[in-house]
Design brief:
254 residues, Spore Coat Polysaccharide Biosynthesis Protein SpsA, Chain A, seven-stranded mixed beta sheet, 7 helices, binds cytidine-5'-triphosphate, binds the ligand C[C@](O)(CO)[C@H](O)COP(=O)(O)O, isoprene biosynthesis, EC 2.7.7.60, Nucleotide-diphossugar_trans, IspD/TarI_cytidylyltransf_bact
Amino acid sequence: MSEVKTVWTILPAAGAGRRMRAATPKQYLHLLDGKSVMQCTLERLLALGLQRLIVAIAPGDSRAAAVCELLDPAQQDRVEVMTTGGLERADTVLNTLQALSGRAADDDLILVHDLARPCLCGADLDAVLTTAAGSRAGAILGTPVSDTLKRCVPWARRDDLPITETVSRDLLWRALTPQVIRYAVLRQSLEQADRSRVTDEASALEQFEYEVLMVAGRSDNIKITQPEDLALAAFIYRQQHEDGMALARAPAST
Ligand SMILES: Nc1ccn([C@@H]2O[C@H](COP(=O)(O)OP(=O)(O)OP(=O)(O)O)[C@@H](O)[C@H]2O)c(=O)n1
Ligand SMILES: C[C@](O)(CO)[C@H](O)COP(=O)(O)O
């Protein structure tokens, strides 16, 4: 395995959370024990030992600094807030990479993790970091698709769409985060990609035929997207701590 010099963690947190249909962006909604989604995600990543956390927020968002002040004072200097939010998630990530110019080296690892995914466990973090560090371009977490997949007529704001076919789920995975990619490769790919086809970091690299490796992760690393996801994420987050999975590490690779 090649030596990992530096890992920068970018946490896109500039979304409006439209699908949550809440008055407050989802990153500031209460998750559990009086803590917001943002606080819970940051505490989990700090507890897992990540050193350089960058929370990328939207212009005009004045709430992130207050959340950071709630973190353990001994850990606060590991978290930086950058107002690098863009129109789409990919814009937020690229703006943050550009803001790191001169600080990040070309082969540093950039670990992008949705702030709306508080339930990342230590063993998965270790696995994706180890694979990315040993790869040329990078690696992402994912889980195999487990439901039957249907193609329907175009979405028409109605609940009863006609089904046109069943799509084979062979070889299909759900992409999760973290997605861990070397700085120069990720920045160049996002700058040059056809952005209409970019929904995650890996999809930008795929356009230039970089090999991004898929690492099997836990399916409970959910993204809070719909209103019902909030209670589920709170349950999973607490349970992962109670059963010792949250901070358990992968066995050291040989
Ligand atoms: N312009 C954007 C859009 C999204 N995100 C972040 O990317 C993550 C995953 O995106 P998603 O779940 O799509 O969040 P939202 O865009 O907030 O949700 P919605 O699409 O429902 O509005 C979230 O942490 C979100 O804050 C971001 O930083 N900048
Ligand atoms: C990056 C991502 O989390 C992978 O599943 C996801 O694509 C981001 O959310 P969005 O709803 O596609 O913006």
